[in-house]
Specification:
Number of helices: 8
Distance between the termini: 31 Å
Shape: elongated
Strand content: 15-25%
Structural class: alpha/beta
Strand order of the largest sheet: 2-1-3-4-5
Order of helices and strands: EHEHEHEHEHEEEEHEHHEE
Length: 223
Amino acid sequence: MRILLVEDNLDLGDAIESKLSTSGHCVEWVRDGNSALTWSASGDFDAIVLDIMLPQKDGFAVLRELRAAGCEAQVLVVTARSEIEDKVNMLDLGADDYLVKPFDLRELEARLRALVRRPAGATTSLAQYGDLSLDMAGRVASRDGQPLDLGRREFRLLEVLLGRMGQTLHRERLMNQIFNVDDDVSPNALELQVSRLRKKLHGSTVEIVTVRGVGYQARCHEQ
């Protein structure tokens, strides 16, 4: 996932960023409300982890402006407050879920995965696309019940494309979601990942199609 982390507590922010990055996610970490709004407008994020108590603008104001601007990213609010009114207010403003500090970082990641699956209507970590099965929680892809030997980036690329089946995803968006900003990658790194993935999907009912000059899309056809 491409995640925007909005947290001003340096220790907690560092722990969250380390955990999510180690798990293979691309994380942008900002520490105040104004930066959160700037980054959300310029980046294509799957999810936003949003603290309530922030400098400049608090989480309530940030969330209100995000939704008013049409931001569709899943928002997971984290807060030290336990009052029910805060939780209700954040949900009413457009938050998708919340966690009360302190929390287990493993639960944070699990909640994020569950949220990102929601737009596709999935209720479990297992999704079926033609003859392909994706277990998002286990990070395993199978074809007709046989596991596919996919690297971390290959799995992420397949996950992103299948999640937008039939839609063309721009090259820049895929680059942002597959690689971290500090990764030292060659200009043709995405094409290399696509080529490898295509070879492993050879004969599948799912194919990755190049939309020349734009990007790629996944298509599913009957055998």
